[in-house]
Amino acid sequence: MNKTVLITGTSSGIGKAAVLEFARNGWNVAATQRSPEKETDFANFANVKLYALDVTNLFSVEQAIDRAISDFGQVDVVINNAGYGVDGTFEAMSDEIIEKQFSTNVFGLMRVTREAIKRMRPQGGGMIIQISSMGGKITFPLYSIYHATKFAVEGFTESLHYELAQFNIQLKLIEPGPIVTDFYGRSRQFVKSSTTNQYDGFIQKFNQAAEKVMKDAEGPEVVAKTIFQAATDNTSQMRYAVGKPGPLLLLLRKILSDKLYFLMVRKSYNL
Question: ∠108-164-73 over CA atoms, to 5°?
Fold first, then answer.
């Protein structure tokens, strides 16, 4: 019997690429989106079914997972991909902006994880793959609350894996570097102060350097292939870095002192 994967946030980017990667490799795919009625790219795949799922709504999460299990028999792998990024000056960020970022990237991921566990434990096991970021291990300017959410995902997942091992439920983390997706386009939420211009020079320097980095960025397909590898390599490896220069930066963060790493980042952004 073919295995089944449920993926959140599949309307674009990494999530969409992951659906196509698993479908082409013969898996049953439960592709979830907040507005699945708008999706047209999966029509030619008989092994892909669409479900409405909003990670911020518990009933929506429960209903989508249960419908997928009803249609496919069981869900073997759940991929927590839904998320977005907020960047900008922290001073200008309202409680509403901060809470919304955590509501999706952390609490939504936790909600899907918990409901997946409830269904995987009785079936004898499964796998939950969290789409984190290199930004869950290292930091860059102007992404303070985004980094906070990804650091939370890393710590949550690492701790959780101890208690789930007894149930044969495996946890894995994917840590992409810069990837060409809507994360840097229509999904980007940039926050700038309306009461002071004292950050403007800093922001301008950062954006100019960031644009150069994105010129060399890889597409979401490279992440999708790494996700598929994580789901199928039958190893106990937890973390998978992907997307240049992410793996190199993660290595440098391990071996450099705080002082040297911070200096490297500042020089990279001319700060």
Answer: 70
Give the three-class secondary structure for 145: helix
Residue 12 annotated to the active site: no
Which CATH topology does 4-268 take?
A: Rossmann fold (3.40.50)
Q: Is the pLDDT of residue 9 over 80?
A: yes
Report the distance separating Cα 30 and Cα 255, nearest Å: 40
Each residue of 138-190: pLDDT tens digit? 999 999 999 999 999 999 999 999 999 999 999 999 999 999 876 655 567 88
Instruction: Give me the catalytic one of 51, 143, 146, 240.
Output: 146
Out of 49, 137, 150, 172, pick the active-site residue.
150
Min mean pLDDT across 2-11, 23-32, 213-222, 231-240 is at 213-222
Catalytic residue among 132, 137, 172, 184: 132
Q: Which helix (H) or strand (E) holds 79?
A: strand 77-80
Q: What is the CB neighbour count within 10 angstroms for residue 269?
A: 18
Whether 132 is a known active-site residue: answer yes
* Angle (nearest 5°) at CA 244 between 21 and 17: 15
pTM: 0.95
| C-beta atoms surrounding 114 within 10 Å | 12
Query: Is position 143 annotated as part of the catalytic site?
Result: no
Q: State the pLDDT at residue 159.
A: 98
For the chain, the structural domain boundaries read 4-268
